[in-house]
Amino acid sequence: MAHRIFLCFLSVGILCACGGVALANPSPTEPLTKGVSLYACHHSYFVPVPAILTELANAGGFPDQNIIGHHMIGGSKSIQHWVDHDPEMNKGRDELAAGKVDVLILTPVYLPDAGIENFAQFGFEHNPNIRVTVMEAWAPFDVYNPVLYDPHYKPQPDEPPVMLKPVKVDHNAATGEGLRKMMEYYLRTMDAHIVALNKKLGKQVVFVVPMTEAVTELREKIIAGQAPGLKVQEDIFSDQLGHPKAPLAALEAYCHYAVIYRKSPVGLPVPSVLANSGIPAEELEPLNRLLQEVAWNAAIHHPLSGVVAK
Q1: 130 is a domain residue
Q2: What is the largest CA-CA distance in the chain?
Q3: What is the C-alpha separation between 157 and 177, in angstroms, rounded?
Q4: Span 17-37, mean pLDDT?
Q5: What's the CA gap between 61 and 80, in Å, rounded?
Q6: Which residues are 39's β-sheet partners?
Q7: Which among 237, 273, 239 has a CA at the least distance from the CA of 254?
Q8: Which residues are within 8 A (CB) of 255 and not within 5 positions of it... i.e. 6 or more apart?
Q9: Is the pLDDT of residue 178 over 60?
């Protein structure tokens, strides 16, 4: 996977093309040596991940990881969690205010999303060492459609055409080239938004979990017949919207593990979500290894992940 080139601000305020993020106080990139306290504000794609992430942390040498809680709103932007008055969300905000959250996980859909900045600013004010991770997700229904999640959305001049949700989604018809082209604007603008937030905060507080890239690479492996136990792209989705089946849920957890701990997941044992998925036993280990490698490859090649290959 090639390094992504995007626009970022240098400390002198000049806009330039670069392969990394220039910040006044860049975050360290060394692997963590102890578990962290997590809170997640997420949509339904992320539902299976906390349980898997706990299993991975235990296997990876982080038994002290603590998932304080999580708050789910289907198809949500982060701003919906910010304004929500659900008792669970209030509890999460209290934990942030007390400085008890080491890593806040966000899974926004499309921009604009003021919630990313609100959470990052609030968390940083109460814990200067907090990290906020933003999962760049795969496209619902395999189409680019921000209007689906915001009826008042106004497309920008350089934005690709909004595609209507098809009556029947054919996940198997997608190509890696087509997916990358479709999601280029989303990724570019999300990265630029995060770079600007980090510049405003004075250090890298917000990090990217590059699921878009990881899912696209996995789908290419499936198309090429290089994904053990997976015959067609549809094998990783449970429905037309794109909710994850076990292999995709495991990949999602591996991507978060890589970014949270800055440590490769390659070599971790098969998680129970895969072991109980019905995939033939002889294909579990090679599939698990592939998912780990895809996750790590995506993390080390994204300049906003905070992960560096060792």
Answers
A1: yes
A2: 56
A3: 23
A4: 66
A5: 34
A6: 69, 104
A7: 273
A8: 135, 209, 210, 211, 214, 295, 298, 299
A9: yes
The tens digit of pLDDT for each residue in 247-300 reads 999 999 999 999 999 999 999 999 999 999 999 999 999 999 999 999 999 999
- In this predicted structure, what is the pLDDT of residue 310? 73
Q: What is the CATH number of the domain that holds 112?
A: 3.40.50.1110
Q: Exposure pattern of 108-135 as b/e (b: 16+ CB <10 Å)?
A: bbbbebebbbebbebbbeebeebbbbbb
Amino acid in the structure at residue 138: W
Residue 251 inside a domain? The answer is yes
Q: How many other CB atoms sit within 10 Å of the CB of residue 287? A: 22
The domain tally of the chain equals: 1
Q: How far apart are CA 51 and CA 29, in angstroms?
A: 26
Residue 155 is assigned to a structural domain of this protein: yes
What is the pTM for the complete model shown? 0.91
User: Are the C-beta atoms of 19 and 3 separated by less than 8 Å?
Assistant: yes
Segments forming the whole domain that contains residue 283: 28-300
Q: Return the residue matching tokens 């995709």.
A: 248
For residue 170, tell me if it sits in a domain: yes
Q: What gap in Å lies between CA 184 and CA 292, rounded to an integer? A: 24
Burial of residue 101 (CB within 10 Å: 0-12, 13-18, 19+) is: buried
Find tokens 């999640």 and name the residue. Answer: 149
Per the CB < 8 A criterion, the answer to whether 68 and 39 are in contact is: yes
Q: Kindly report, residue by residue over 87-111, the tens digit of the pLDDT.
A: 999 999 999 999 999 999 999 999 9
Euclidean distance between CA atoms 263 and 187, whole angstroms: 23
Mean pLDDT of the chain: 91
Place of tokens 């067609």: 232
- 207 within 8 A of 260, measured Cβ to Cβ: no
Q: What angle do CA 307, 266, 212 make, to 5 degrees?
A: 55
Each residue's pLDDT tens digit, 39-91:
999 999 999 999 999 999 999 999 999 999 999 999 999 999 999 999 999 99
Tens digit of each residue's pLDDT (9 = 90 or more) over 140-173: 999 999 998 998 898 888 898 888 888 899 999 9
